[in-house]
Amino acid sequence: MRVSIIQIKEMKQKGEKIAMLTAYDYATAKLIDGAGIPLILVGDSLGMVVLGYESTIPVTMDEMLHHTKAVVRGTTRALIVGDMPFMTYQVSVDDALRNAARFIQEGGAQTVKLEGGENMAETVKRIVSSGIPVMGHIGLTPQSIHQLGGFKVMGKTLEAAVRLINDAKALDEAGVFAIVLECVPEPLSKLITEKVSVPTIGIGAGKYCDGQVQVISDLLGLYTDFVPKHAKQYARLFESIKSATADYIAEVQAGAFPTEKQSYAMDKSVLTELEKSM
Ligand code: KIV
Asked: Is 61 a pocket residue for ligand 1 (Cβ < 6 Å)?
């Protein structure tokens, strides 16, 4: 049985910290689900860390659905959050509802995430009232990167901090089950966490959030084009993959791979027969 949004909300009440990770494929999702991660985000960060785009902006609904389905197939326990890509929920509420429904019906996710605060409150209300749980996302919202002028910490001035608090409250009132706080100063995310009824999930938002999210490729040390300050490498797969590849190339070149262990045998009599016939 999968983790539910009720259980996620209860974790805040009980003071239990929530761990969330992104995943984009069957194999990784299966591993982290098996390791006990309760929340998996199929993030549109896949555009950068898997598909090699410069930002998350080019990511399409079809790409998100393709990866969401793979993650769902690899999991039995984690609650899956499908990340709504750029311009699939901003144009109209009807559009937002249709695309959120695709994540649930076609992708098999249980919930969706979208970026924005007060400006998205009506959209969130409508999606939630249609029976689809929504996770909010405020602070640094990568889909607005051109508007924001780059990847940077948000809410540093009094005005910006008040705006973020109001965004969080508006999302809470609109019915989100959790809110991602990305690149928010620790004291501000502490305040926000105290002011909202639902869990806050931080990424670059300090230790007072109710939970934390990391991009799996950062956590595993797989994506090294850009490593943000808030990322912690729990492994350095980049190095392991590079050295495994170099070993493989060297063994192929030296004729040391494959050995008998990796080869398939054939019945001797069939082989003799075959050789005679040639
Ligand atoms: O797309 C993503 O991975 C995200 C997380 C950084 C929260 O939105």
From this structure: no
